[in-house]
Structures are given as structure tokens and as C-alpha cells.
User: Fold this.
Amino acid sequence: MLSGLAVRMAHALKINTEYNSDILCTEEGGDAPSVASRESRRRLMWACYVLDAWAGNGVDHLTLLRENDIKIQLPSNERNFGLRIPSVTETLGVGHVLQFLPPAIVPRRPAANMGIMAYYIRVVTLWKRIVRYVNHLHAGPPPWQPDSLFAALDADLHLWRRELPDFVEYSTETIYARLDSNQFGALVLIHCTYHHNYLELYKLTMPNLFKPPKPFTFSPEHQEFLQSAHANCYYHAQQIADILAEAAEHGSRLLSDSLLPLFVYDSSRVMLYYVARLLDPTRPDAEAKMRDAVKAVESNSKILCMMSALFPIAQPLVSLDPTIRCKRAREREREMLRIGLRVKSATIERWLSKVQQTRGRDELLKSLESDEQAQPHRPAM
Assistant:
């Protein structure tokens, strides 16, 4: 694969380490690279790291790069890079800098020199840790205990969010600033990745949806933990839908990252599963949540339709409702049926249809149960 070739070339060029200890480029003479060249080396290496992480799906034996092998600081912000200003930033560890730096050149807040790319790298690293944990669920304390790895990862996600500077926040001001600098797509990706990390972490609380090989067994005394996890998972799934719906208003070019179709797909699955199977029907806002979920999933279907022109992977995930599916999806439907890809969106489409047609929770559950009994050959969500 190209990712493997890129990683090997990066190691061969030794861009996984700093060129030398002169981070601020104070030494004169010699053939040392310029400020821009040094920063470009770092950005290229971190791009290889992200590429390797996604290509290997976060699984250790499928990835080639380990965090300990990368001995460079995180990328600087765009202003410093554009103006060729050398600066000290943090490493992957929050609050940490390169060990060989003399204290005199380390600023009080190295994180102030970091840009949006640095925070994206950190959230990808968190994703790798989450995948590693989910793939080895039964190692260590169970997730409901405060000293568990689940609790530590949840705390690290909160820390990442809390450490975000204003210019990486998802706010009205930042949106228009990023649109003006042609970086809104990066802002969308980083926040969708953050919210999807929660879906990855909380999937262990929805074994009937995500089908882990060795699911946890939650006893009745852990129902409060489960309910809280389910509500949080639904919230983050809805956030993905809201962010992408707003991005779509500014054009499909802002949806041009190949990971987004998978984020949208998981978002729809979680929201429909939550309102159909997990939502307490006695809650005063139960009906409102059901309507919100339907609206969000319909929006996700339209977004997948927009993405299908950019990524073939989005085509089998596009809603099959003829009232909203796109022309390109209709043209490819016969081919999708032939190669068996339509099954991925079939369950979401059936469940969305059931939710749209029913008026109450009891009626919905009966409808879903009859649907599963009538079509046992189709995989459950």
C-alpha cells in the first residue's frame, strides 16, 4: 500500500526525528535547513502518521508507526509557518516538550504555538488508544469502575476538548474565519473525529448494535452507567449530524474527507438504535427525541448522497428512499445489489421507515420486532 511505502520512506529520510537540537534556528552557517523546511519535515512526518493510523484502522499489528518512534514536536500554527517564525510546541503528551530543549528557550505556554493540525494529530492518537482498548475489552478493570481504562480514555477526551484554543472551537465566529481562510473542511473533520471517538468508546455499551466478539455483560446494578453512556453516545452521534449538515450548506467540497461517510453511517445507526431500543418511553421528551433522530438521519442520508459523487464508499451507504436518493445512487443501485453492498444501508433504511410511519414507542417496537422476524436473513444493526 502507498501508506506503507510512505512510512518506510519517512524512516529512511529520518524525518521522524528533529534535524538537530537547534529548534529555533539560531545557529548560523552550515547546510542546516531553513525554518520553513524544518516545519515542512514535521508536517510531512505527522501526515504519514495519520495516514498510517487510518490505513491500519488503529489496529497495532496493521500499523507501522508507533508513537514512541516519532521524536519531533507537533506542527506550529499557520501564522508562524507562513511568516517563517521558529517556535517551540508540545509533543503528543499534553504539557510536554522535547526533552533535549534547554529550559531557557521553552515558552511559558508552548501550546500557544500549535495549530489546528496539532490538535487533529492528538485526537487521532486518542482514537488509536480507544480502538486498542475496545479490541481488548477484558484486560483491566471493567468500564464502570473509576480506575478503568474506559474512564481514563473518557477523561482524556474531555481534556482534549477542554484544551482546545478559541481558533479551533466549533463556533459561529470560527466557522466564518475558517471559511475565509479555506480551512472549514479541516475544522469539520477534527470535530467529527472527536465526536466519533465517543461512538468508538461507547460501542461496548451497545453490544447488540456493534456486535463485539466478546461483549461485556452488564448486571442490573450497572444500569445507571449504561443509561448515561447511551445518552452520551446519542448526543455525540447527533453532533456529527449537526456539524455535517451545516458544512453541507457551504458546498460539498467541504465534505471531501474519505472518513466522513463512515462517520455519518455510524451516526445514523446510533441515533436510530437509541430511539428504537434504548430511549425510556416515559421520558417527557421521548417523542421529541424521536422526531429529532428522524430529522437527523434524513439529513445524514442527503449528505451521503452528496458524498457519493466524491467517494465510491458513500454510494452503498446512501439512503435507498427514492424520494431523497440521488441520481448517481439510482444508477449504481443495480451494481450495488450485484456485489452485495446494499445490505449495509438496508437496516438503517428499514428502521428509519418504521420510525417515520409509527406514532408511539410501543408501536415502533412492535413494528421493528415484526420486521426482524419477517426478515431473519438480514443482519441486525
Remarks:
- The chain has three domains: 1-110, 115-307, 321-356.
- Residues 1-110 form one domain.
- Residues 223-248 form the longest helix (26 residues).
- Confidence is low (pLDDT under 50) at residues 319-325, 327-344, 371-381.
